[in-house]
Amino acid sequence: MKYLLTFLCRLWLPWTRGQLPKQFLILGVLTLIILMSRTHQISARIPEMSVATDLKSFADQFPDKVVVLYFTAEYCMYCQALDREVLGPVLRSQDYEAISQFFRVQHDEPETKLTDFDGKKISNRDLIQRYQVDVTPTIIFLGPDGREVASSIVGFLTVDFYGAYLDQSIQDGRTHLLSKTN
């Protein structure tokens, strides 16, 4: 990056009247390349998490999977750090894909509608109130009936043990679900 900036400065500084359009064209192309590569890097870092839209359908189709609801907000800097430092790598690794499914619930979009575990249409606000989510980020672990199957994780301060807490809650939820089916 340092060398690219040096090159651009050398290209730009000694301009004369006849060289200006050529330099603008080169500068514009290089800027576009840099912006496109940065956008690709950012989008490649954090995989897309499904938005909670139809919990009933998912629970009916996969009754043995832990439903992980991630309550987040666009303005929440802790949520952004959690996405980048923990959830992005977890989703990329696909380590929990066979036993759980992560769904995003936007705390800052309370009127967004979704289908609840019992098939009724409810709003994000209803879900937030039911599970008493007052802080973002909050992650809760549910069975196919919408009941909590493991301890929720509220807030995010450091990365240090968060992955272990997440792993423990998913494993506890899975154990709970398996004990009910046997």
Explained architecture:
This protein folds into two domains: 2-45; 50-181, Glutaredoxin, CATH 3.40.30.10. The protein contains six helices and seven strands. 48% of the residues lie in helices and 16% in strands. With 182 residues, the protein is of the alpha/beta class.
Number of separate helices:
6
Major beta-sheet overview:
5 strands, mixed
CATH architecture of the largest domain: 3-Layer(aba) Sandwich
* Helix content range: 40-55%
Mean pLDDT: 84
Task: Tell me the layout of helices and strands.
Elements: H1 2-12, H2 20-45, E1 50-51, H3 55-61, E2 66-72, H4 77-93, E3 100-106, E4 113-115, E5 121-123, H5 124-130, E6 138-142, E7 153-154, H6 162-181
